[in-house]
Amino acid sequence: MSEHRRTNSRGRSTVLKVVILGDGGVGKSCLMQRFVTDRFDANSFHTIGVEFLNKEIDLDGEIYTLQIWDTAGQERFKSLRTPFYRGSDMCLLTFALDDAKSFQNLDAWRKEFIYYADVKADFPFMVVGNKMDLPRAVSTEEATAYCNANGDLNYTETSAKESKGVEEAFTSCLKRWAAIDTPQESLPLPDSVQLSNTGAHSRGICSSGCS
Ligand SMILES: Nc1nc2c(ncn2[C@@H]2O[C@H](COP(=O)(O)OP(=O)(O)OP(=O)(O)O)[C@@H](O)[C@H]2O)c(=O)[nH]1
């Protein structure tokens, strides 16, 4: 695909792969849809496999194409989603602010991603607490403490439903990516990855672009 050869003035790619991870039902598909199409689906179903959408974004006068990969959060789809982690430029680790379990599972998601993506030490993760429009089960302080304790991860809160903080989440992650200048050491691979089982109903297929 010729698009993948597009580079900026520093010779870095301007087509960037962004993977969204997190428990089933935390709002990954809705975040992607809100960011790309500015729509919200109150009846969004569980994703099976992966789906992606492209969105162009201007950062300091440079146009980047974010290729956003929405993954299936349910444990039973692990074998379908993990092959798509490799080659990622950024990762949104997502939980729902009204769901403490989804927050507890964040670290397993981070480890799963590191294990299958084999990313560098300074890899740009963005931790996203979604559903800020609902009553909270997780405080900003708890989430920030997790981020500080795990390599100074960026943290932000969003509501895909009310269109709050969504564009900022993606833009901040892109800024962090842009700030990384040099090749870094790979992160050590975790020994194992274990997610608690999540979610119930399902929809979807591995959609366009899943080559
Ligand atoms: N109140 C509220 N509901 C949301 C928000 N974002 C998503 N939802 C709802 O949460 C449910 C799950 O959203 P999805 O985007 O399908 O969740 P997902 O993380 O993609 O789920 P999987 O595909 O199973 O991994 C849907 O009913 C959405 O309408 C939000 O910001 N606020």
TrEMBL record:
Its cofactor is Mg(2+). PROSITE patterns: RAB, RAS, RHO. Coiled coil: none annotated. Residues 188-211 are annotated as: Disordered. Keywords: Cell membrane, Cytoplasmic vesicle, GTP-binding, Hydrolase, Lipoprotein, Membrane, Nucleotide-binding, Phosphoprotein, Prenylation, Protein transport, Transport. It comes from the Eukaryota. GO terms for biological process: protein transport; retrograde transport, endosome to Golgi. The keyword Transmembrane does not apply. InterPro entries: P-loop_NTPase (IPR027417), Small_GTP-bd (IPR005225), Small_GTPase (IPR001806). It is an enzyme of class 3 (hydrolase). It is a lipid-anchor. It is found in: Cell membrane; Cytoplasmic vesicle, Phagosome membrane. GO terms for molecular function: G protein activity; GTP binding. GO terms for cellular component: cytosol; late endosome; lysosome; phagocytic vesicle membrane; plasma membrane. It catalyses: GTP + H2O = GDP + phosphate + H(+). Its EC number is 3.6.5.2. Belongs to the small GTPase superfamily. Rab family. This is small monomeric GTPase.
